[in-house]
Amino acid sequence: MLSRLNHTQMLRYAGLFSWACVGIPLFLGSFHEGLSRGDLLGWRVSYFGFGLCYWFLTRGIGRRQARTADYVLLLVVTMCAVAVSHFSGSGLAGGLLLAIAGVLPWFLPLGVGISWLLLQNVVLVPVFASRPEFNWGQAALQAVIFIGYSSFAFIAGLVARRQAE
Fold first, then answer.
1. Angle at the Cα of 48 from the Cα atoms of 100 and 31, rounded to 5 degrees
2. How many domains does the chain have?
3. By the 8 A CB rule, do 96 and 19 touch?
4. Percent of the chain having pLDDT more than 90?
5. Which residues contact 98 (CB under 8 A, 6 or more apart)?
6. Cβ contacts of residue 154 below 8 Å, gap of 6+?
7. How confident is the model at residue 61 (pLDDT cuts 50, 70, 90)?
């Protein structure tokens, strides 16, 4: 089956697979302990919002120039990823930010894409620092670790885009 997919389709489906994996805790009741109904609802809405927007964002990847709607969708999926961590009280956003990082080179110039990659992870610092088990230094360290992982996905997306040119 993979041999029938081109590189952009593989990138898209890898992102959707990552999204599905990040959703596993959402369906495990033990992971919900200590969350309010509002947090659980926010987690669900942001998780499914990410999946839907990522689907629309990546449907034309590599076949057309980026449009204003693509930039809006990039912003929405980034906000949804951060919201997943906020509402779940976890670092699950890291997996979603990886999926975003892999497609950034397809929509943004290199410098803007790198800036987006950095900023999407830096905004997690206050989310992590708001948790009782993190101080600001630990929250920043967690974000730097996510930047490292996301950089790998970003470069993989950049290589795929350059091979397509």
1. 100
2. 1
3. yes
4. 75
5. 18, 149, 150, 153
6. 101, 102, 104, 105, 113, 114, 117
7. confident
The continuous run of DSSP H or E covering 164 comes out as helix 136-164
Inter-residue contact 107 to 71 (CB < 8 Å): yes
What angle, rounded to 10 degrees, do the helices at 93-107 and 136-164 form? Answer: 40
User: Which alpha helices (H) appear in 23-135, and where do they start and end?
Assistant: 37-58, 68-88, 93-107, 110-122, 124-129
Residue among 50, 98, 101 at smallest CA distance from 73: 50
How confident is the model over 18-42, as a mean pLDDT?
88
Domain that holds residue 55: 2-25+34-164
| Token pair listed for 71 | 């930039």
Retrieve residue 6's tokens.
Answer: 């081109």
Q: Which element (helix H / strand E) includes 92?
A: none
C-alpha span between 44 and 39 (Å, rounded): 9
Amino acid at 138: Q
**The whole model's pTM is what?**
0.91
| Beta-carbon contacts of residue 121 (< 8 Å; ≥ 6 apart) | 97, 143, 144, 146, 147, 150
Residue 1 has pLDDT above 80, yes or no: no
